[in-house]
Predict the structure.
Amino acid sequence: MHQRAHTEEKPYSCNVCDKSFARSNSLVVHQRAHTGEKPYQCDNCGKTFTQSSHLMAHLRTHAGEKPYSCNICGTSFTHSETLKIHLQMHTKEKP
């Protein structure tokens, strides 16, 4: 399976939109976009997610965790994507 990352082989195809994946688990997660399945639920607020990693990131909002810090001004963020957007403010880059 590791070699597929180098060969770009993607033997797992979605039967709805024909998108292909190197790993079967990636196909399973993708198919949730079509079915609307969100098997991971937050015990605090009930919000549901398609991936466990998205639930884990969400849980940081309840815990007040902000592990991503700007190395320019020190502002901290809950999500890495929010930090990336913030950094564009310092560099004046457009998203």
